[in-house]
Amino acid sequence: MGDEFEKLLTAMKVSPARILILSYITVILSGSIILWIPIASSNGKPMSYIDALFTATSAVCVTGLTIRDTGSDFSLFGQIVIILLIQIGGIGYLTLANLLNIFLVKHISLFDKLVMKESFQVFNIENINQFIVRVIKFTLFFELIGCALFAIKFVPQLGFAKGMFYSLFHAISAFCNAGFSLFPRSFEDYKGSLFIVGTLSILIVCGGIGFIVWNDLYEVIIKHKKRNLNLHTKIVLSTTGTLIAIGFVLFFLFEISNPLTIKFLTWKEKILVALFQSVTPRTAGFNTIAVGNMNNYTLLLIMILMFIGASPGSTGGGIKTSTFTILLLTSKAYIQRRREVNLFNRCISQETSIKAFTIFFIALSILSISIISLLITEKGDLLKIAFEAFSAFGTVGLSTGNSINNVSLCATFSPLGKIVLVVLMCIGRIGVLLLATLILPPKEEGAKYIEEPIAIG
Q1: Which residues of 8-19 are buried (b: 16+ CB within 10 A; e: fewer)?
Q2: What is the mean pLDDT of residues 270-297?
Q3: What is the pTM for the complete model shown?
């Protein structure tokens, strides 16, 4: 089946990958034009186009890096546009378009199925129609539940209309792992609220583990299909839990004596902040303390978490949790001189291992080039500039410059520096491997040559 699809893709002049990328670019450019018009700004004056483009890209790529304060610099119309762009970027414009086709004409074309396969990285297209419908259902379920929970707190504080809008906005932003907030200091004023921090964390994790996992859990637990969970689901859930636990412990130990972050907080606040700051770098972008006040080694820890990111087929970016796990397992197997990479009584193919290392290498290369470019165009500390680049690539949105007015450090960047981050956000959302296959399309193998050993390491 896979070979037939590859032949079909080769025969097509426009590949599904190219269609997928063009759809993101189209939505970003359309959103930037809408945000550029005066009605989108709170003062009734148009912002610079580069700021509108940056905001639209950050929203569609569900990043959360902001160079304008979402709550004060944008009108209600502008805020509605931003949350719509986040929703479209989170589940995909093509998902919505194909859902419409399913309801109107009862089917979608083979080409559209291939595009959706690329978008969500599903393993086959046999039940893609059902999968698309479930993606919408999962999204609405979690966002509406999140909205209802937030409303319990926000409506009494802000009034019904404003409270409901804030609840819906942050529920969508959290589940889509976008990190946009209408509050001036993100969620720093709620750092001691178990209810708010817990709701945010659950929404972030639910959006970050991916629709592939939710579909598998739905079929096994709800539909009672007599089979075990897929290996992918087991890897994603175990890796996600492990990273959150390790991140929580390390953040707590790194910042426990920092008077600018958690030293003088209550024990409840210390634990909640440490837990949330372990969850949010997984491409969410909200913060409950000022990121710029953290120790340098804590910032480095967060950069690693941002680089790993969420899971395949999710609303997040990064190299993905499954890629990270395969990297570790393959390295361990090679050191132990084992030919096979095994996990949960299953064998990982050599092709999967090579794919993981390829993603890792390309991602580091892109980040290195981007950081060097930013160091040339901008004046600033290496660590803080690198932090912005990792945040953009991981579609996270955390910044060392958002301690006062929820505006990222990149707000001070030159137009060229902002463009670099725009490109990074797009690459992080689309995926490095998908982009690489467009630059270097598949090529048939030629003659097989004699192997000769070389020294490595």
Answers
A1: ebeeeeebbbbb
A2: 92
A3: 0.89
